[in-house]
Amino acid sequence: MDQMDISHHFDEKNPGDNIAIDNSHTGVMMNRVRKVSPMPEENGRKYDNPTVEEALHYPILMLKVGGFYFENFRWTKSVLARILFDVLVMAMALAIVIRIIAGFMTNGDFSDKLMGRIVFAVANISNIVMYPVLIINTTRNLPRVLAKFSAFQAENGFATNVRKLKRRITGISIFSVILSIYFLASSNIVSSSRFFDESGVMVSRLLPFRYTDGYVYDFVSVIDSFTVTILSFFMYLQLVIVFVLSYLIIQEFHDVTKTADTIKQQTEVTESEVQNLRWRHFQVTELLQTANSIIQPNVLLLYIIMLPSICLTVYGVVYSTLGLFDVMILASLLITNTIAVCLITATGAIINSKAHSVLQSLLELSVKSLSTDAKYQLQMFITQVTSQTIGIDIYGMFIMDGSTFLMIAGTLITYIVVVLQIQAGSCDVTNVRNCNCTT
Predict the structure, then answer these.
(1) Pick from 93, 89, 92: which is nearest to 123 by CA?
(2) Maximum CA pair distance of the chain?
(3) How far is it, in rounded angstroms, from Cα 350 to Cα 422?
(4) Tens digit of each residue's pLDDT, the chain (439 residues)
(5) Taking a C-beta distance cutoff of 8 angstroms, is the pair 302, 239 a contact?
(6) Rounded CA gap, 78 and 182, in Å?
(7) Radius of gyration over alpha carbons of the chain, in Å?
(8) CA distances (Å), 314 to each of 160, 411, 414, in order?
(9) How far apart are CA 151 and CA 153, in angstroms?
């Protein structure tokens, strides 16, 4: 069933009861079944976990500096400079696409390497379209998402140790910067050394420019590598934010299930315990719905870029007359893209699974130990969980769950099997007229 607004579940019996939750009750729900040490006090001040915004400080800072995120947008010299930088990056990506198309038209002798170049073209075209979309979406929705998570944390705390999470995010951010600089420097050093075969994927991607063009070729190589690195880096930072938000939501749903498991072992369950548990699940679901405004465009972009790239890469490896080094490059792209698709799809499936995992514990509650009001709360909670599909909603097209993972995996495996079944080598892509392909 489609995802739906579940707020109506909290005003069917007594609207006042649904808002005024018994916070004085010392039951399981409000004590939060987790290992949290008391907050130390120093100079009369309490120290707690950092907020989600503080945990994401470095990714957000780099997005701001790179012009990918404009917090409290106002026309200043700094904002104008970042906008001009964004326009420059998009212009360079467009120039790469135009150059690749020109390479197709003017260099037929390298047509057997076209699949490698098509992969780069698809990626750059997708980036040109989605880059401004993600900038606008992040600028508009990220402050609201961070505010929602901060409000949730202030009211309930997180089941996750945010301080540890912040250290991990900081380490990942530093590693990403180092890796990006290394990729940019190494790709240009190797390119300027004229080490690769001129007909290989790494050099033919710069067609119609060749080694013989000298410094012009080196300049084009620098521009190409810089653009790809910048786009990839900012897309990666966006995915870091997506995975962090998803991880926090997964842990909250898991904590709700743990609490339900504890409650079902009690000999007596009160109405307030069931109501608090139901309210907590509702809050986490709202948290997911708010975070979805940031998650869904990134997931859609990932699928738009990665899935065609995987298919084209497989086809290129099977049918193009590539050397060993070119095969290794395309194989690394294939593995990287496949891992990215699997990770984001698995994350969506886990969120869906965790959101509904509490149902089993609810069904195992002994109704004999419940009062009439508690039974009513339990019935409404079960209806709340079963009457909707809770998960990452991709613009109303589908909600990610376990079947999404199976669908994408099945599609890719089927495509690979079909490609491998066609007689490799029976079709010379450089001489289509003499092609005699059979299945």
Answers:
(1) 93
(2) 85
(3) 36
(4) 444 444 444 544 443 344 333 333 333 333 333 333 333 333 333 345 799 999 999 999 999 988 889 887 778 888 888 889 988 888 888 888 887 777 666 655 445 556 666 766 777 777 777 788 888 889 999 999 999 999 999 998 999 999 999 999 999 999 999 999 998 888 777 777 766 666 666 666 677 777 777 888 888 888 888 888 888 898 889 999 999 999 999 999 999 999 999 988 888 888 888 899 999 999 999 999 999 999 999 998 888 888 888 887 787 777 666 667 777 777 888 888 889 899 999 999 999 999 999 999 888 888 877 888 888 888 999 998 988 889 999 988 889 998 998 888 888 888 888 877 775 445 554 444 445 544 4
(5) yes
(6) 28
(7) 26
(8) 40, 13, 12
(9) 5
Residue 393 bridge partners (DSSP): 399
Q: Please, are residues 275 and 17 in contact by the beta-carbon 8 Å criterion?
A: yes
Residues 6+ apart with CB under 8 A from 188: 218, 221, 222, 225
Contact yes or no for 299/348 (Cβ under 8 A): yes
Report the alpha-carbon distance of residue 122 to residue 143 in Å, rounded: 31
Q: Is 35 left (phi over 0), alpha (psi -120 to 50) or beta?
A: beta
Burial (CB count <10 Å: 0-12, 13-18, 19+), residue 150: middle
Partner residues linked to 413 by β-bridges: none
Between CA 130 and CA 315 the distance in angstroms is 25
Using an 8 Å Cβ cutoff, are 299 and 400 in contact? yes
From CA 157, how far away is CA 392, in angstroms rounded? Answer: 23
Distance of CA 126 to the CA centre of its chain: 16
To the question of pTM greater than 0.85 for the whole model, the response is no
Name the residue type at position 52: V
Q: Please, are residues 201 and 322 in contact by the beta-carbon 8 Å criterion? A: yes
Instruction: Judge contact between 239 and 298, C-beta under 8 A.
Output: yes
Question: What are all long-range contacts of 196-199, with beta carbons under 8 Å and residues at least 24 apart?
Answer: 196/325, 197/323, 197/325, 199/109, 199/110, 199/113
Counted residue by residue, the chain has a size of 439
- Examine residue 208 and say whether the peptide bond preceding it is cis (omega within 30 degrees of 0): yes
Helix, strand, coil proportions of the chain in percent (round to 5)? 75, 0, 25
Spatial contact of 327 and 354, defined as CB atoms under 8 Å apart:
no
Contact 231, 89 (CB under 8 A): yes
Q: Are strands 393-394 and 45-46 parallel, antiparallel or unpaired?
A: unpaired
CA–CA gap between residue 303 and residue 408 (Å, rounded): 10
* Run of H or E residues at 399: strand 398-399
From 241, 237, 235, select the one nearest 131 (Cα to Cα).
235
